[in-house]
Structure to design on (660 residues):
């Protein structure tokens, strides 16, 4: 087992190098100059410009710049943001809990609805419920996220006034940042209504971010269940006189979960990285919004470091999923 | 009254090409302690009729019968819940592929205890004790350890023993074995058959053995029911059937046994079992029968009397045997 985990860690190395290289190259390929962006509308003198070019090291050959960056990264230094002058590392971990909180909620939403929906659809194959559910899932999967988000905001925030439009919590409340997770911090603060406000702020972003994973999980669960239900051991379970709930919910689902776990793992990866649209629309102060902002500001260290850290998170999630297989599928475990 | 009584059992499948009749008006009786063998080629409806009895057919199947009683229960009138109380407890079944018939995600111990807990309401401890006993009974060495194993960690023969242990766990009155030895190698086949017969002797349950191996039939069965294209074409006790088959199909099957061959080449039955679209008008066996005439090809035969082995044939064979007796 330990050997397996170590060998999986070894595959991190090439991915790591690839991500560093690509993020370094891509942001530089983009037209635009961070110094000019920093200067803003006022502009700056040529002397000041040259001075800054020298200060950021843009005058040196690109390979040297990359080498400097790489050695920095290996020593745990991702550089400082051009804009805020704060270390990328600190900024990332100040914002990451917000993204993580949203991703976890979206994933719980997707799994809690997607799994049962897929199972029920498989049990009622070809009937009304199955058809309705699967076509709804297809619609959900094809829905452009920004449009879906705006639609929900118009109806639930605008017309009905049930949920706030953006942010993580009402401005009325203020408390110290303990864990970075608003749900936990608001509870810890003990202020009346703070937790409720945090929950209300989470609802719409959670639904929007969870919609695509929900659709994917429901469809995957359904097809995996249909395959498993045709297996010999399901016939055996029925021949044993087991009630249908136990056959579907235990004997079939346990086997169907194996492919579904893969999909869940992949979705978690995209959620961590792909909350960009959702975070931007709901002004959610997470890393997605932070990344977008820094791309517009040509904030090289932030884009490079942020991409790298996101990639590492995704790799860790995938590793966890691989280890989870063993728990569910005994054929893998004993090897 | 017999333990199992089937009258005019028919099973039809709704297919895209119309209805397909897989089992056609089959009558069967099984008593306690009986060993009935059902033989026939692939596609003769042997398994389907027994799956229909167990209620294991997919929803596309339509089962009809004039009578379908088991141990005093009318199976056709029972609710799904009522049927589940019988299936797996009083009437159990084992299958052809032991490796895929057990759930790969659970230990064999879990799977056998589950049956005990659901049907007999045993607690964890009692179920464990009974599971060990059952593994002993079916000849699995080191039961405590083996109960913790997953199906993929054991051989096909061992898995079939697990299936048997699971099937007999609630002391069933009837055990249906659907080609239990087909997927196993020859030495294991003999062991499994011996085990089934031994269990029948000890518990007095009825045993239905579905097979296409005449050797297995000769060794284990008391009565044989020969099926062809969904119909029962003949039924006799083993000895008379081997000595004097009345239906030409049975006769041809027996002639194809290697032990009975007189020539260098084994005799065969030309052609294949008719399918959904090439069902003959008259006798279903007529296209392959060397005795068939125009009458056979036009008029479907009805089963003859018990003295002729209920043979579905216009011109039964070995009729002089009847005269002699």
């Amino acid at each position: 087992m330990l050997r397996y985990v170590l060998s999986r860690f070894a595959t991190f190395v090439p991915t790591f190098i690839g991500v560093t290289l690509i993020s370094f190259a891509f942001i530089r390929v983009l037209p635009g100059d961070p110094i000019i962006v920093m200067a803003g509308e006022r502009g700056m003198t040529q002397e000041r410009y040259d001075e800054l070019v020298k200060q950021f090291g843009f005058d040196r050959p690109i390979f040297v710049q990359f080498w400097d960056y790489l050695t920095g990264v290996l020593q745990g230094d991702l550089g400082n943001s051009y804009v805020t002058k704060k270390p990328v590392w600190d900024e990332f971990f100040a914002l990451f809990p917000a993204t993580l909180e949203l991703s976890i909620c979206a994933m719980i939403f997707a799994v809690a609805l997607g799994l049962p929906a897929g199972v029920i659809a498989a049990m009622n194959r070809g009937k009304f419920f199955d058809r309705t559910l699967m076509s709804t899932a297809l619609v959900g999967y094809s829905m452009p996220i920004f449009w879906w988000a705006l639609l929900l905001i118009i109806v639930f925030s605008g017309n009905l006034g049930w949920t706030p439009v953006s942010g993580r919590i009402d401005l009325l409340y203020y408390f110290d940042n303990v864990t970075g997770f608003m749900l936990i911090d608001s509870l810890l603060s003990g202020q009346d209504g703070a937790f409720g406000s945090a929950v209300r702020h989470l609802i719409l972003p959670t639904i929007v971010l969870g919609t695509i994973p929900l659709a994917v999980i429901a469809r995957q669960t359904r097809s995996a269940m249909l395959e498993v239900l045709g297996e010999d051991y399901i016939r055996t379970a029925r021949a044993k006189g087991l009630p249908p709930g136990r056959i579907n919910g235990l004997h079939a689902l346990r086997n169907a979960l194996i492919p579904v776990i893969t999909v869940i793992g992949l979705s978690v990866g995209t959620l961590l990285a792909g909350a960009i649209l959702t975070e931007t629309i709901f002004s959610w102060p997470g890393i997605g919004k932070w990344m977008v902002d820094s791309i517009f500001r040509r904030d090289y260290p932030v884009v490079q470091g942020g991409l790298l850290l996101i990639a590492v998170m995704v790799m860790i999630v995938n590793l966890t999923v691989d280890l989870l297989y063993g728990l569910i599928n005994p054929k893998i475990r004993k090897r | 009254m017999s333990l199992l009584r089937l009258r005019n059992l028919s099973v039809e499948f709704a297919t895209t090409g119309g209805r397909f009749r897989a089992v056609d008006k089959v009558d069967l009786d099984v008593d306690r302690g009986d060993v009935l063998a059902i033989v026939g080629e692939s596609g003769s409806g042997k398994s389907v009729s027994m799956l229909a009895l167990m209620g294991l057919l997919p929803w596309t199947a339509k089962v009809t019968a004039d009578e379908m009683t088991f141990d005093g229960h009318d199976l056709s009138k029972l609710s799904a819940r009522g049927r589940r109380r019988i299936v797996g407890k009083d009437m159990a079944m084992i299958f052809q592929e032991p490796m895929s018939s057990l759930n790969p995600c659970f230990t064999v111990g879990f799977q056998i205890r589950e049956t005990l807990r659901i049907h007999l309401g045993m607690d964890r401890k009692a179920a464990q004790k009974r599971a060990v006993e059952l593994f002993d009974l079916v000849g699995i060495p080191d039961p405590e350890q083996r109960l913790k194993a997953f199906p993929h960690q054991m051989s096909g023969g061992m898995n079939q023993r697990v299936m048997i242990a699971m099937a007999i766990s609630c002391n069933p009155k009837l055990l249906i074995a659907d080609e239990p030895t087909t997927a196993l190698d020859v030495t294991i086949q003999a062991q499994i058959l011996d085990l089934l017969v031994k269990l029948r002797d000890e518990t007095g349950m009825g045993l239905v053995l579905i097979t296409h191996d005449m050797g297995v039939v000769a060794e284990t069965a008391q009565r044989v029911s020969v099926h062809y294209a969904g119909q029962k074409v003949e039924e006799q006790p083993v000895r008379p059937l081997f000595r004097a088959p009345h239906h030409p199909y049975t006769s041809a099957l027996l002639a194809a046994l290697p032990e009975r061959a007189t020539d260098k080449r084994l005799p065969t039955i030309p052609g294949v079992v008719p399918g959904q679209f090439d069902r003959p008008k008259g006798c279903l066996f007529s296209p392959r029968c060397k005795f068939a005439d125009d009458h056979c090809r036009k008029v479907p035969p009805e089963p003859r009397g018990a003295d002729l082995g209920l043979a579905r044939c216009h011109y039964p064979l070995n009729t002089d045997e009847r005269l002699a007796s």
In short: The mean pLDDT of chain B is 88.
